[in-house]
TrEMBL record:
SUPFAM superfamilies to which the protein is assigned, alphabetical: Peptidyl-tRNA hydrolase-like (SSF53178)
Lineage: Eukaryota, Fungi, Dikarya, Ascomycota, Saccharomycotina
Species name: Myxozyma melibiosi
Pfam families on file: Pept_tRNA_hydro (PF01195)
Entry keyword Nucleus: no
Transmembrane segments: none
Protein known as: Peptidyl-tRNA hydrolase
Keyword list, A-Z: Hydrolase, RNA-binding, tRNA-binding
Listed Gene3D superfamilies: Peptidyl-tRNA hydrolase
GO MF, one annotated term: hydrolase activity
């Protein structure tokens, strides 16, 4: 029998825009999904985020959320800056994680995607940004490998930049929010577990 590959430590970061104004918008769907993870595992993570000097956002640390047999810790970070300025604090969170959890900690980004239907999810193990400004910002600061988990939010009929901006900054309709929680969230969970167990390479769509 081959030796079992040990599970990995993860830093899962959500990208979006901060504050109540943007909390339910399509562009902040990464935050919405991370909030669900935090809520579902509050006992493991604790009631309050960690205090890390110079870090803008909410950072939680706990035991593995995804694999009961795994002993490695996991960290969840909700970036607290505007989407286009995500990179600096994602890097700071990763530096903290590489020290606190281990230098081999994997970075995973949760973010919205216009080119996918609501409820669809795709994970990639490359550094391609596909026009996403949050990913572009992370790439500007972080030169290591990372995983993207792209969460479909659909696209407006118009491709005009003003119309697209209005769409992504608009609130998610209740029906779409239900779809995201009922369909996208379980898929995100499965993909995170695959990453933690070192079973995901390349591109996987669900």
């Amino acid at each position: 029998m081959s030796a079992q590959i040990p599970s990995s430590r993860l830093l899962v970061c959500s990208l979006g825009n901060p504050g109540a104004r943007y909390a339910r918008t399509r562009h902040s769907v990464g935050h919405i999904m991370l909030n669900q993870l935090i809520s579902d595992h509050q006992r493991t993570l604790g009631n309050k985020p960690l205090s890390v000097p110079g870090l803008n956002g909410e950072l939680y640390r706990g035991k593995s959320l995804l694999n009961r047999d795994a002993t490695n810790p996991i960290a969840l970070f909700k970036n607290g800056t505007l989407m286009n300025a995500s990179g600096a604090h994602v890097l700071r969170a990763w530096k903290w994680a590489s020290s606190a959890l281990g230098k081999d900690t994997k970075l995973v980004l949760l973010h919205d995607d216009l080119e996918m239907e609501v409820g669809s999810v795709q994970a990639r193990s490359d550094r391609k940004h596909h026009g996403h400004n949050g990913i572009k910002s992370v790439r500007d600061y972080f030169d290591g490998p990372f995983y993207n988990i792209r969460i479909g939010i659909g696209r407006p009929d118009s491709r005009a930049s003003d119309d697209v901006a209005y769409y992504v900054l608009g609130n998610i309709p209740p029906r779409d929010l239900d779809t995201l929680k009922e369909e996208a969230y379980p898929k995100i969970w499965e993909l995170l577990q695959a990453i933690e167990e070192n079973k995901l390479e390349g591109t996987v769509k669900k």
